[in-house]
Amino acid sequence: MAPPPVARGQPMSAAPIDPAHAxxxxxxxxxxxxxxxxxRGWQRxxxxxxxxxxxxxxxxxxxxxxxxxxPGSLVSPWMAxxxxxxxxxxxxxxxxxxxxxxxxxxxxxxxxxxxxxxGATLLSWLPGHAAAMLLGARVLQVSPDRLxxxxxxxxxxxxxxSAVLLPALVAASLSVPLMLLAGQTGASxxxxxxxxxxxxxxxxxxxxxxxxxLLRLKPAEMAAWVDVDTLVLLCVSLGVAVLALLHLAYPFVxxxxxxxxxxxxxxxxxxxxxxxxxxxxxxxMISLGLLATPPTTTHWQDALVHLSVAMMLVPSxxxxxxxxxxxxxxxxxxxxxxxxxxLYERTPAMMHSIGPDxxxxxxxxLWLERLGxxxxxxxxxxxxxxxxxxxxxxxIEQVIPAFLRSGECRDVEYRMVxxxxxxxxxxxxxxSEHDEQGRFIRSLxxxxxxxxxxxxxxxxxxxxxxxxxxxxxxxxxxxLDRLGRVRSLNPAAVEMIGWTLDEVRGRPWAGLLGxxxxxxxxxxxxxxxxxxxxxxxPAPVSCRLRCRDGRWRVVRETAVPLHxxxxxxxxxxxxxxxxxxxxxxAHDLERTxxxxxxxxxxxxxPNRLLLQDRxxxxxQLRRRQHGRLALxxxxxxxxxxxxxxxxxxxxxxxxxxxxxxxxxxxRASDTVCRLGGDEFVVLLxxxxxxxxxxxxxxxxxxxxxxxxxxxxxxxxxxxxxxIAVSPEDGDDEATLMRRADTAMYRVKHEGRHGLGxxxxxxxxxxxxxx
Length: 770
What we know:
Shape: flat
Keywords: Membrane, Transmembrane, Transmembrane helix
Distance between the termini: 80 Å
Largest sheet: 6 strands, antiparallel
Transmembrane segments: 49-68, 98-116, 161-180, 192-215, 273-292, 304-327
Strand content: 15-25%
Domain PAS: 336-407, 462-507
Mean pLDDT: 80
């Protein structure tokens, strides 16, 4: 956005972008372009980059302010916003972006002070340009259009709307109210707003395409992109601009003509340079009063001149992007033609192409190898020269006439003659190509060795027999080649893994499905890998497989090597047959039974049996590490009254709610157990000191003491907690449980709703055992 004349007191400035730089979308191919060089510069020499950024901003802002101060100036091209957008775009990390922001603001402020702007003017000027640069840099960062700017008119137009027009509108809408509040503009608010929009629009439109195009260049290309054609058209464009502004009634029509010629002949980056130079020259001449504008009755009509300048720049940029797109398509088409030609020649199949005169146009490499010819001995000769007498007669009398009528033929049996006089029986299938008028151009034929075809038929029959047998097997069977890639699936395998054979044929089996140990840990050894490595039959492995639908299945994997006779009569490994037996139901039943044996049915907490096992292991660990553990024996106070007053259903719901709060109040490594009834035990396997156990118990008391909403009831309960610490209060399971129980009963006798440690004088009031 451009500042209005200094006399009208309406300058503006720029701001930083907050999100991280997105140049990684270009990948490794952009590692050596100008943008990458600037990114490395901010990482290695941030001070120099900040100084360069401040200098650039100051020069561009100073130039705009200088033109704006001229007597005939209404709007001067403001290019500092475009410079700030690109400067912020080429930083990475918060620190570099903050340095770039500070440098930009310092440069703009310096330019404003040197131009005679006061502090109030700067304060009303900076936020608008800050918003413009921030918004523009953000749009450029997240939009892929800037990467396609050079070869897509649609992307070019979208960048113009989002990174040129939108920031100009937002910045003007922010700046005008601030300038009105500060009394910095003498013009009407709408006119000031329009001048700010047009100035920024012209300046950003002139500079931003050039900067974005330069970012895509490699440093080695920087010296070569300004050539003789560019210099000639630059001189012509500037000369036409000067003459048209001084002598012609409708100058902008004529000024745009050399730019359109440049758009056809030059690259986008060169056209952008011409647009920048012409826009700056036109803006300078308008500011210096060298353009005789037509008489106007209102101030806003002067803005039409600058709007014409902006509209003059757009067609050449869009046309240049269109020419870039056309050039890319032409290069891609030529590359594709060359690729298809090489593909035709190198494809591992016998192929040939025949022209309208019946002579050979092209042959594949395998065709030449099988028949023993060189390409120069084949191309240009009649195709029938390579057939024996019987095949030649049949081709001339039957096959070729039928082919010309129908445009195709399939599985025609020919006997071809090799260069050494040998014969090759083939099956030929061909199609014809025609031009737009329907005239025959060429034929494309594929030839297949009959011997190989017969072998393929035998293999197909064997495959059908094998597939029929596999379909009757309930377990999943996967056939793999010697590289571990999927070759076949029976219906049970398709149903289990969720992929069809067409979707996974040729894909490596390793990594196709998620694989874990039964306990969810690291996957056990892969029997397929072992089978391929050792050519042996490894022991079956049970594991969990994550299939395509996201479900985990427990399977038993059995891998068997597959052998075929080799050339020397020995067996050679050609792959693996993998059998997956689904044992999910049996495994789930086993886990369910194990959980029922070790967990409380009502609350899902560990029961007495599981507590005994964990306490035993915790004591063993404590002895090795010479640490401490604590056991909290907890009993609900007056729980029997809840059952008596509200029924057992309410009591069961309350017990489940209490269990959840106790679990939430302890660490994940602690064990919360329900012994039965309203008795709970908490095992703290690792504590530093006894007060740690007190803090946990107090936290449990506070958590449990909050009201419970059970249906329409609001209930409150509390715990009496007894604490025993090992080794002080014992070093075996039974002693710790008994003493924690004793401490709990002492708390109950002392009034309930509290906690207490076991003391030496406590009488054994309880009879708890693990």
